[in-house]
Amino acid sequence: MLDKSIPYLNIVMMRRSGTPIPQYERPQGYSFVPFTKGNEVEWAEIETSVGEFNSVAEALNYFSENYLSFLGEVERRTIFIQTVEGKKIGTVTSWWNYTGVRRDLALEWVAVKPEYQGLGLGKAVVFEGLRRMVQIEGDRDIFLHTQTWSYQAVPIYLQAGFEFMKSGTFNSYENDYEDAIPYLEEKLRFRLR
């Protein structure tokens, strides 16, 4: 769940090519499944549950406008983690963005429904998203945009090999590193510099 009690500041991270992806087994009783046409509603429900969108309709509209025209790629690059009953409760997308003419790989839309957080599922979905990205694209630099409101996910990203970009960015994201770090350190209760 996003913590909107602190200012929203952009955080840009990068996992350098050659950085090992840690081994981590997903918790028992959960499995990974690829996106298939029709799963956009589940994606929208997950992203809305964590506060990324104000409504499922808004999330669904975003997903339709930005991803569904690339259906084959979405099916390869978006995965869910689901319960043994088949309920989709988390997601990640291994996508790309352009910075000018440069095509940058990016891990996007990492989310786990609030009632399933704290079980290791976020870590499982991030690490699996990275493995899928490397399988599809090869071992290249991978970017990630997050924000201070998602500070709880930052330790997972660090464990996955991402580093803060103190300057620079990808796509058109602002990089608020200097302003964001004090909020992260306060919330996480450890030094990040």
Note down, in words, how this protein is organized:
It holds the Pfam family Acetyltransf_1. This is Ribosomal protein S18 acetylase RimI-like enzyme. Residues 30-188 form the N-acetyltransferase domain. With 193 residues, the protein is of the alpha+beta class. It has one domain: Gcn5-related N-acetyltransferase (GNAT) (Aminopeptidase, 3-Layer(aba) Sandwich). It contains six helices and seven strands; from the N terminus they run ββαααβββαβαβα. The protein has helices spanning 40-49, 56-66, 71-77, 121-137, 154-159, 177-188, and strands spanning 10-15, 30-34, 78-83, 88-99, 102-112, 142-147, 162-164. A seven-stranded mixed beta sheet has the order 2-3-4-5-6-1-7, with helices on both faces. β5, α4 and β6 form a beta-alpha-beta unit. α1 crosses α2.
Please give a quick description of this structure.
It comes from Alkaliphilus hydrothermalis. This protein is α+β, with helices and mostly antiparallel strands and 193 residues long.
Structure characteristics:
GNAT_dom, Ribosomal protein S18 acetylase RimI-like enzyme, 193 residues, 33% helix
